[in-house]
């Protein structure tokens, strides 16, 4: 009898995203990492270049592997003209489904479940003592990372953990594109616990199949306006 190689298994292993090395961070280090990632993953519009110096200073004291990830992107951002950086952002995050920055999209896609997921994000912000007040949907990764960086509530960490599959799919997609933004998402993943086997299987399924595709209107949640602490003064608004 002729022996056969298990090619499907080999193909599956090759599709698995390479794991990142999780690092133990202090509370302040994790906050600095998440806030830096929040700012760098936001649209690089007016004022973006002026913020780079402050971001570089804020991550300088982080463990070397995470600091190096941020340095990789910061070097790229400084060397890239503003218009080109904006075009790269749009081409990366607004066009490619697996590079979506909206966390609930990975599990709910454009289906009726997406509306419920977005409401759950709003409720999570309120449970952490914040009111979401931004021009993005509440599952926008930079907004969730800002919540994690600025809130003392464990809700933000639970929110990220509940959508870890989407974060890993995003990382894998950016790495396959050799995108400079992959370094920023890797920095976020390094600040989180390592994923278990069950999560890795769900990541692989998402990479293979993509998010659900049933299309429905979500206009009733499409104009949700960064966010403010509940009852907070205007200067607390994220800019």
Structure, briefly:
By secondary structure, the protein is mostly helical. It is built from 12 helices and 2 strands; from the N terminus they run H-H-H-H-H-H-H-E-H-H-H-H-H-E. It has one domain (25-230).
Provide an overview of this structure.
- InterPro entries: DMSO/NO3_reduct_chaperone, NO3_reductase_chaperone_NarJ, TorD-like_sf.
- This is Nitrate reductase delta subunit.
- With 239 residues, the protein is mainly alpha-helical.
- It has helices at residues 7-15, 27-40, 48-59, 64-79, 82-93, 105-108, 112-127, 141-150, 155-162, 164-176, 181-190, 197-209, and strands at 130-131, 228-229.
- A two-stranded antiparallel ribbon has the order 1-2.
- The protein has one domain (25-230).
- The termini are far apart.
- Residues 1-14 and 215-239 have low confidence and may be disordered.
Low-pLDDT stretches are: 1-14, 215-239
Helix-and-strand structural type: mainly alpha
Strand share of the residues?
under 5%
Q: Compute the separation of the termini in Å.
A: 68 Å
Shape call: globular
Number of helices in the DSSP assignment: 12
**What integer value in Å does the Rg equal?**
18 Å
Give me the oligomer status.
single chain
**For the report, how would you describe the main beta sheet?**
2 strands, antiparallel
The share of residues in helices is 55-70%
Q: How many distinct folded domains?
A: 1
**Run of helices and strands:** HHHHHHHEHHHHHE
Number of strands: 2
Question: If you average the pLDDT, what whole number results?
Answer: 79
Order of adjacent strands in the largest pleated sheet: 1-2
């Amino acid at each position: 009898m002729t022996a056969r190689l298990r090619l499907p298994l080999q193909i599956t292993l090759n599709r698995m995203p390479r794991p990142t090395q999780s690092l133990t961070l202090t509370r302040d280090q994790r906050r600095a990492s998440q806030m830096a990632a929040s700012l760098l993953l936001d649209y690089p519009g007016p004022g973006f270049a002026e913020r780079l110096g402050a971001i570089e200073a804020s991550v300088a004291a982080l463990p070397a592997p995470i600091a190096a990830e941020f340095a990789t992107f910061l070097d790229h951002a400084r060397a890239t003209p503003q218009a080109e950086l904006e075009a790269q952002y749009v081409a990366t995050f607004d066009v490619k489904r697996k590079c979506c920055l909206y966390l609930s999209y990975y599990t709910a896609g454009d289906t009726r479940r997406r509306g419920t997921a977005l409401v759950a994000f709003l409720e999570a912000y309120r449970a952490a003592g914040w009111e979401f007040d931004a021009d993005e949907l509440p599952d926008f990764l930079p907004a969730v990372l800002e919540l994690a960086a600025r809130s003392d509530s464990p809700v933000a960490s639970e929110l990220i953990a509940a959508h870890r599959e989407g974060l890993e799919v995003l990382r894998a997609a950016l790495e396959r594109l050799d995108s400079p933004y992959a370094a920023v998402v890797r920095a976020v993943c390094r600040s989180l616990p390592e994923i278990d086997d069950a999560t890795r299987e769900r990541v692989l399924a998402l990479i293979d199949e993509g998010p659900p595709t049933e299309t429905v209107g979500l206009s009733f949640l499409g104009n949700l306006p960064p966010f403010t602490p509940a009852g907070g003064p205007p200067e607390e608004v994220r800019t």
